[in-house]
Amino acid sequence: MFTYLFVQLQILEKIQSWAINLFCAIDNISEQDEVLIEKIRSDIQREEDYTLNELENCILDNISCRSKLLQHFSYTKFFVNQIGSNPKARLYIKQNTTDILLSDLPFIRTSLKKYYSKSLDTELMNHIEDLLKINKHTEAVQDAFKLLSERIRKSLNMPETCKDGCGLIDAAFSKKYKIQFRTGEYLSEKERKNFSDLLKSVYSLIRNTTAHDFQDISFPTAEMAIVTINYALRTLKI
Question: What fold does the segment set 2-116 form as a domain?
């Protein structure tokens, strides 16, 4: 789920970057600047051939059909090809790129987050979204673990001096504290042990690698940690 969401968000970032560049460049070209005009046409063709196709393949149909992104993109491409023959081409290009930037992309982002919010912890998603979009997987995982630790301490009224990492997990899932499922039921002794083992494993295997050994991690490894943390946050009353 995280893979799908953040691949989609990265594609939207590419489209946003292209639209901003076009919006800024369009006022600075003359009709005689054939090299720059050709570059703009080449860029928009590339976006259509690759980025938009990527988006169509992975964006949910119910979101895609309610967005006017493809329509505004087609209009933009049409008027880019009319630079030099249509005196209003620049105006229409700016109008359509403005619609892409201020309407279409925000709508798709919001719709995606709303859809995935059914299975993703909102606070976790907000903490790591910007980092994952720019491929800072290690930093995203570090922030995810910090959030998990903060939520455990706060929900159980644990002192700030309580150890972090495996020490925190051992204390939180001990008999001293009563952790509940979101349904309101308390964890059994077996369930406390299972959750403790699960979370200590990801702390030891991944969090300690980034925090103590200063090693960068790949996206699949980051996703494994984030999915586990998300499962705990969504399942337990923390």
Answer: Four Helix Bundle (Hemerythrin (Met), subunit A) (1.20.120)
